[in-house]
Amino acid sequence: MAGEIDSATFVVVGGGIAGVSCVEGLSFLCPERRIILITASPFVKTVTNIIPLTKMLTQFDVEEKDAEALSAAHPSLSVIHDSVVKLDSADHTIITRDGRYIQYEKLCICTGAYPKVIAEGNPYVIGIRDTESVRDFEKRIATARKILVVGNGGIATEVVHELEGIEIVWAIKDKHISATFIDPGAAEFFLSQLQKDKPKKPVSTVKRLKYTASPGKDGEGHGAALGPDWHANINLSRTQSNKSKVSIEYECEVKKVLDSKDMHSIGEDWPVYAELTNGKIVGCDFIVSATGVIPNSSMFVDGNDLELSADGGIKVNWLMETSVQDVFAAGDVCTASWEHARHWFQMRLWTQARQMGMYAAKTMVGSYKNEEVYQDFCFELFSHVTNFFGFKVVLLGLFNGQKLNGEYEILLRVSRGMEYVKLVMRDGKLEGAVLIGETDLEEMCENLILDQLDLSIYGEDLLNPEIDVDDYFD
Ligand code: FAD
Description:
8 helices, five-stranded parallel β-sheet, alpha/beta, Enolase-like, domain 1, 3 domains, seven-stranded mixed β-sheet, binds flavin-adenine dinucleotide
């Protein structure tokens, strides 16, 4: 295999949602040209059960599939299980760990991101990202009494909610939980869920996301990132009781991770301790580090004029083009460096990985055929649907007042334990929305944000269930 040379019109690196959406788009738009997908893990991620909720908002499941099944469905596609180690852009070639040289006319980098783990290499600190790390987590949780969860995004939120019968200390750097997605009001709404006994989960009812073990070929953890429901098929309960004791340490981070031998003086006996910036010392069985991700871009940089942004992502323009000719990027690995539409911003999520992958296919084909491409409408409005604490959560536009410099008003409707509706308003216009529960308001909110209608006449009645705003505007 060493020295083997291959070539294709389109080459895509990475078998996560972005890479797979990209090859599916390429094979649809340009079925006559050969496509190669190179991926470090033997399984690829595909999107299934797509349910459009509104024009912009799509709910879908993710399935891990054998790479063979993907190539069987797309005759012009060859999938190679290997890791890319170098890009030689002058020669339009990528080089793999197994010594393959693959030439491309248009290349798309979709290698995702890896977790930023505090105290990297410490055996008592784990980052959750791929199937391997989830299996490690499951093994450890089976015997653990107490853990420390560090981070305040989606993964930390899910860990704290899903764990059962264990003591959890949750260290967050913000003033309220889950700050990446929600405001203090919604955090309060969810906090009451943390105190509640959860209903026992039936083991077989989960229809989404069945993960199989997928170690990277070289065992280096290059598996695709997980996503919603990553916890669905693993056993996260420790005891007969299904309630965890959760204590939250607000506005702090981990200053130092300490070994058990340094800590005998405090009289407790835990395998690992963390010193927090608020001065507290937390002893526990292990630490879950869920403090964000770093784009997986380093192997493409050497010898190429590839511009990276401050967060390590590969900079792309509105056509998903990098600074290197004929090289595109999509998904978690890239940083959207065009001038964003007023109600859109980048967040490293499934939704955007899929949108970017599909759109990159369009722009690659446009570039190959020298055809004009218009930017996809999905980049007009931030939209995301997910589940937190068992509730459907829809986020639209500037849902947390992003970009508004604090100059906005909030309209709120809350039914404890049922729904939380927050509208972000400026100058009488809707700028963003957080819809928790079965609110049925997503379509109306999307239209109102996109149309920027003046809603001043409604005032607080905008959220009055007796008034049908939709009818008024129809
Ligand atoms: P990935 O899915 O990471 O895929 C990268 C691909 O590149 C993999 O196939 C990998 O094998 C391959 N690769 C890497 N390096 C190389 C190389 N050198 N050569 C060849 N192949 C390579 N998002 C949500 O929207 N909602 C959620 O609820 C949510 N929950 C999450 C929970 C967890 C635990 C995690 C870790 C992430 C979660 N995310 C969630 C984020 C979401 O998973 C990512 O945004 C999304 O998977 C990014 O897709 P991607 O295709 O860009 O990258």
